[in-house]
Amino acid sequence: MNSIAIFCGSSKGNHAVFEDSAIEVGRFFAQQNIDIIFGGGKVGLMGAMADAALEAEGRVIGVIPEFLKTQEVAHFEVSELIRTNNMHERKQIMYDLSDAFLVMPGGFGTLDELFEITTWAQLGQHGKPIGILNINQYFDPLMKMIENMVSFGFLKAENTSLLIADSKLEELFNRMKAYQASETPKWLK
After folding, report:
1. Does position 177 have pLDDT exceeding 90, yes or no?
2. In sequence order, which residues have a C-beta less than 8 Å from that of residue 112 and are 6 or more positions away?
3. Rounded to the nearest 5°, which phi and psi values hold at 175?
4. Is residue 25 within 8 Å of residue 169, measured between CB atoms?
5. Domain residue extents for the chain
6. Looking at CB atoms within 10 Å, which of 13, 19, 97, 187 has the fewest?
7. Does the pLDDT of residue 187 top 90, yes or no?
8. What is the pLDDT of residue 178?
9. 151 vs 157: CA distance, rounded Å
């Protein structure tokens, strides 16, 4: 794994543990010499994670649509800042540059990124690992909703293996490195 896209909030949330974890994530991947691809913002968890990675001499690539450049206060100190025309182009570039995906707490945008990249995996468009860092049980309700999707017949149980969730960063990273994608798209099984 040479690069990882990190999806996380442009807000810091209301518990210090979220920002502390974002800092830990930035430092961790910098120390692993893994390039970080992120949404390009200087604010919230995105900014805290990017700053920590840069302080640890990591390579950080921001991808931000022009219209968000001022709203999200683009992080101009990153190793590289790629400007896009829209959100779709942003996600495609983040996907193209990344060997894996890590999802941290965030809002609608973060969940949009998580579900789009997971849908692509389900449809056999990629076999890259998708990790969910479940900080402070943030994603517990989402994981329960995924169980509901299975129990109500809207998602096959084997599709849940597309997501790797853990509350400990190093354990999550090790599980992501060991991930082996199915050769048959999950939706065809």
Report:
1. yes
2. none
3. -65, -35
4. yes
5. 3-176
6. 187
7. no
8. 96
9. 9
User: What is the CATH number assigned to the segment(s) 3-176?
Assistant: 3.40.50.450
- Res. 76: pLDDT tops 90: no
DSSP alpha helix (H) spans, the chain: 16-31, 44-55, 87-97, 108-122, 140-151, 169-178
Residue 109 token pair: 């945008």
Q: Determine which helix (DSSP H) or strand (DSSP E) holds 7, and give its type and residue range.
A: strand 3-7
The SS3 call for residue 143 is helix
- Hey, what are 79's tokens? 């190793």
171: Cβ contacts below 8 Å, ≥ 6 apart: none
Q: What is the pLDDT of residue 61?
A: 97
Cα–Cα distance between 136 and 160 in angstroms, integer? 21
3-class SS at 151? helix
What is the SS3 assignment for 126-141?
CCCCEEEECHHHCCHH
3-state secondary structure 86-100: CHHHHHHHHHHHCCC
Report the pLDDT averaged over residues 79-100: 95
175's tokens = 């599980």
Element (H, E) at 82: strand 80-84
Tokens for 184? Answer: 């048959």
User: pLDDT tens digit string along 112-141?
Assistant: 999 999 999 999 899 999 999 999 999 999
